Amino acid sequence: MAQVSRVLDPAPVSSLQDHQRSGGGKALEAARAAEPVAVIEVVEASGLRGRGGAGFPTGTKWRTVAGMGGAEPAVVVINAAEGEPGTFKDRTLLRRNPYKVLEGALIAAHAIAADRIVVGMKRSATVERKSIERAIAELVAAGWDQGITIEVSAQSDRYLLGEETALLEVIAGRPPFPRIAPPYRSGAEQVGDDVTSSAGTELADPEGSTGAPATLVNNVETLANIPAVVFDGPDAFRSLGTAESPGTIICTVTGRTERAGVGEFELGTPLRVVIEELGGPVIGREILGVLSGTANPILPGSALDTPLSWEALAAAGGGLGSAGFIVLDDDVDMVAVAHGVSRFLSVESCGQCTPCKQDGLSITSILDRARTSAPESQDLDELSYLAARITTGARCFLAQQHQLVATSLLQHFPDSLAAHADPNGRGPADAFPIVPLVDIVDDQAVLDLGALEVTPDWSQGNDSGASPAERIDVRSGT
Ligand SMILES: Cc1cc2nc3c(=O)[nH]c(=O)nc-3n(C[C@H](O)[C@H](O)[C@H](O)COP(=O)(O)O)c2cc1C
Ligand code: SF4
């Protein structure tokens, strides 16, 4: 078995005592006995990269935030908003051992001199919320918090909640509309009552002169890595993985395999091994491609032996993302998949940037016509034009995701598109649901099919035709 158990405990850790029995708490004690800068140096030396999708070096982020100063103490935000289609690793971690995640966040708080930790999660993540709230109560009762406030914010179910600046907006009581600025320059609660939208947000300058608290946003899995990094040291951490992608990664496999599952693997493990071990045999004859959520170009079946690392997957034309792999076999209609991804992203787009929302919705309509074998004459030209324009002025990565995934599916599978356009070719294909996961039960994925009811204006009722940014009052959030 290629699976390892460094970050993801093999069995649920259901009390603080349980966590302590397996060494929990020692890293926090060691960190607190050290100078904050020494802790940051250890994280830097480990080469740990953020597990939220972008793989940004964690130590670099910590050093930047620690150096911001500002009139108020810093804030640590745990990004537990997981909603990437095909990904269930953060919620598995929060169910399995919330103490480890919180211990990592308390170490981060020591390193950047924060007096507040906020766990940002989806409103619908009730199981994980219960788990983390119980853990917080136990930690506080045991005095681990040392006066640091630890709270949970669970106010939205939108995909954009996971985008870190949108998460900060939601924590500040506004809708999940991404900001232009990096979060460490304009932290949680950094704007006054007179600000009416994130677009109108006054940015804190790099010196923090507006008095905004510097804010560190880290993914659940990133923080769950921290106790071992700090206690065992950088060399032990680097004993697994590759030079550029050290450590392990928690993967999710769903889609057209007999099973769905979550498991931890050494970085550098071939994707094929992960799929075979977690997913078992493919349902159809062969794997045609693998989607890493909705954030990266599709990886064709010919690239299944690519090692899981940021560098190798990028070189293969794909991306690691949040290591949530949706396996697509030869029974799948790739135009239907492209439509499913496009629909998800265009609906979840907030509309602050017009091309992202409007061109995105137009791409979805074209792909829907293609899927149902009812294309219009200009559709192909229009698709290329819109796909090139969609990222214009985009303030977050969602628009680029739309461009990357939709165009890569069509580039790798042009025959699929042509077969739908041919009157004697392929007939209409069923819609392929690309939606977040709710759970994995008895080795099978439970999809959030309710996400298919969300309308482009986020009303879940009759679509008004306005974008969420036009429709939603940023003060009341409705
Ligand atoms: C549309 C969108 C959705 C995202 N969703 C998540 C998410 O659910 N969880 C997460 O940790 N990061 C998510 N991210 C990435 C975050 O913006 C951010 O990079 C991450 O929280 C940083 O943490 P890390 O450095 O520990 O990876 C998303 C980004 C985008 C553009
Ligand atoms: S790029 Fe799209 S999702 Fe991101 S802020 Fe702009 S409109 Fe919203």
The rounded Rg comes to 22 Å
Q: What is the percent of helical residues? A: 25-40%
Can you count the beta strands?
12
Number of DSSP helical runs:
18
Number of domains: 3
Overall shape? globular
Q: Percent of residues in beta strands?
A: 5-15%
Give the second-level CATH assignment, the architecture of the largest domain: 3-Layer(aba) Sandwich
Structure commentary:
The chain has 478 residues and is α/β, with parallel strands linked by helices. The protein folds into 3 domains: 3-238, NADH-ubiquinone oxidoreductase 51kDa subunit (Rossmann fold, 3-Layer(aba) Sandwich); 248-329, Ubiquitin-like (UB roll) (Roll); 334-431 and 448-471, NADH-ubiquinone oxidoreductase 51kDa subunit, iron-sulphur binding domain (de novo design (two linked rop proteins), Up-down Bundle). Helices cover 39% and strands 14% of the residues. It has 18 helices and 12 strands. The chain has helices at 16-21, 26-33, 36-46, 58-66, 89-96, 98-112, 126-141, 164-171, 220-232, 234-238, 271-279, 310-315, 334-348, 354-371, 379-389, 398-412, 414-421, 468-471, and strands at residues 3-4, 74-80, 114-122, 149-156, 215-219, 248-255, 261-266, 287-292, 299-300, 324-329, 437-441, 444-447. The strands form 3 sheets. It has a 6-stranded mixed beta sheet, covered by helices on one side. It has a 4-stranded parallel beta sheet with strand order 4-3-2-5, with helices on both faces. Strands 11-12 form a two-stranded antiparallel sheet. A hairpin with a 5-residue loop joins strand 6 (248-255) and strand 7 (261-266). Helix 6 (98-112) packs across helix 9 and helix 13 (334-348) runs antiparallel to helix 16. The protein is globular, with a radius of gyration of 22 Å. It starts with a strand and ends in a 7-residue tail after the last helix. The model is unreliable at 183-209 (pLDDT under 50). Iron/sulfur cluster (SF4) binds at residues 160, 178, 349-353, 356-357, 394-396, 398-399. Flavin mononucleotide (FMN) is lined by residues 50-54, 56, 61, 79, 81-84, 159-160, 162-164, 217-219, 222, 396-398.
